[in-house]
Amino acid sequence: MKLTKNQKLAAEKIEAGKFYAPFEALSLVKEVSSAKFDETVEVHFRLGIDTRQADQQLRGMVSLPNGSGKEVRVAVFAEGAAAEAAKEAGAEIVGSDDLVAEIQAGNIDFDATVATPDMMGKVGRLGKILGPRGLMPNPKLGTVTPDVTKAINELKGGKVEYRADRYGIAHVIIGKVSFEAEKLAENYGAVYDEIVRMKPSAAKGKYLKSITVSSTMGPGIAVDSSVSRNFASAE
pTM of the prediction? Predict the structure, then answer.
């Protein structure tokens, strides 16, 4: 595949075979970014787990100290006082049977969902629609809760989901190219700590096989997985 001029320039700045410290890698992500929009920055963990096994699944949510930089539209399944609380907390969409009907009709104009426990009987009917999109409310992720205000604030404040795919790779948003490298590194550190903390007990062999960071349109930059603290340090 023929490289574009910007891709060639980016490749020249990245040393092949080198594993960069987190701060250095994320500084490079910013440096080689050439898109005309504010690209999203992600970290990709290739893990030594077999997600086909029930005891080696990896999924959860982590709060980024500096936010994700993404405007999150939240839909809330609630009635009565909980519905009013959701509206006051800034949820873009709040409903019950009407919201279920809208989703069944194919109207999905949101990035995350929250539901009160009493609504899950109705929300359960949407599993085949919301599940594949990663939008199904889940008590393990804190999105099925009577405290809708807290859940909405966390989602809008930078709480992001991580989930290892069938290849054992977890792709996690850590911010935008416009963020300072230090802020991106702090977000990276929060995700790194969470991924390590949540290592499945059944996982065998090397857990952190490789870590790569990249922007939406940029090349992947290998990160030294042995760096486990002082993530925002330039040294």
Answer: 0.85
